Amino acid sequence: EDQVTQSPEALRLQEGESSSLNCSYTVSGLRGLFWYRQDPGKGPEFLFTLYSAGEEKEKERLKATLTKKESFLHITAPKPEDSATYLCAVPNFGNEKLTFGTGTRLTIIP
Amino acid sequence: EPEVTQTPSHQVTQMGQEVILRCVPISNHLYFYWYRQILGQKVEFLVSFYNNEISEKSEIFDDQFSVERPDGSNFTLKIRSTKLEDSAMYFCASRLAVGRSYNEQFFGPGTRLTVL
């Protein structure tokens, strides 16, 4: 069974203080790894897909990277509006249902 | 930009009552999903739907649950007799299922179900 573990559970940063969030995964065959952003009381908002080890994707202050065992979401010089819960998920073979991690709750302090 | 929509945003019901949660997936998408998220817990898969039938369902998706695509645009989740433990956010998602980004799923804003 696919497993996804995210760390840390929560992270508080000062505005401008860069850091990384971790997502480690165990799957029978990697069919991609997704990062989502979730604001309180809202649905997951799609950010990135990574399909193979070594791949990187960037969007504004966020950069996602992938190895054979884990993915990192690097946040550079974050702003308060980057505060959210960041989720990673992996699809399974067949109908591509997603297995999610518990997320990292990121708070950026002005 | 196309998006998944869900109604209602919040549903309050009494235990034992039936509820129907509605979703309009992105128009050219082929696969549809329901997930739920109990407060403070992870998002978990309920059911997937393709070609007008269920392709997979989780252990949570028991006989009290059903899904339907009554027309070309709506996708519904029905809970026949709600329990207190059904209180959660319910998310609908859809994916295109073709092309390079075939398995990317896009989520709706959710319906908060409160069972009293």
Topology:
The complex is a heterodimer of chains A (110) and B (116).
Chain A: E1 3-7, E2 10-14, E3 19-26, E4 33-38, E5 45-50, E6 56-59, E7 62-66, E8 70-75, E9 84-91, E10 98-100, E11 104-109
Chain B: E1 5-7, E2 10-13, E3 19-24, E4 31-37, E5 44-50, E6 53-57, E7 65-68, E8 75-79, E9 88-95, E10 106-107, E11 111-115
Parallel strand pairs in B: 2-11
Antiparallel strand pairs in B: 1-3, 3-8, 4-5, 4-9, 5-6, 7-8, 9-10, 9-11
Can you walk me through this structure?
The complex is a heterodimer of chains A (110) and B (116). By secondary structure, chain A is an all-beta fold. Chain A is 0% helix and 56% strand. Chain A has no helices and 11 strands. In chain A, strands 2, 4, 5, 9, 10 and 11 form a 6-stranded mixed sheet that branches. A 5-stranded antiparallel sheet of chain A has the order 1-3-8-7-6, with no helix packed on it. In chain A, a hairpin with a 6-residue loop joins strand 4 (33-38) and strand 5. The radius of gyration of chain A is 13 Å and the shape is globular. Chain A starts with a strand and ends with a strand. Chain B is mostly beta strands. Helices cover 0% and strands 48% of the residues of chain B. Chain B is built from no helices and 11 strands. Chain B has strands at 5-7, 10-13, 19-24, 31-37, 44-50, 53-57, 65-68, 75-79, 88-95, 106-107, 111-115. In chain B, the strands form 2 sheets. In chain B, strands 2, 4, 5, 6, 9, 10 and 11 form a 7-stranded mixed sheet that branches. In chain B, strands 1-3-8-7 form a 4-stranded antiparallel sheet, with no helix packed on it. In chain B, strand 5 and strand 6 form a beta hairpin. Chain B is globular, with a radius of gyration of 14 Å. The N and C termini of chain B lie far apart (37 Å). The mean pLDDT of chain B is 94. The chains are: A mainly beta (110), B mainly beta (116). The A-B interface holds A 31-32, 34, 36, 41-46, 49, 87, 89, 91, 94-103 and B 4, 6, 31, 33, 35, 41-45, 48, 50, 55-56, 89, 91, 93, 95, 97, 101, 103-110, 112.
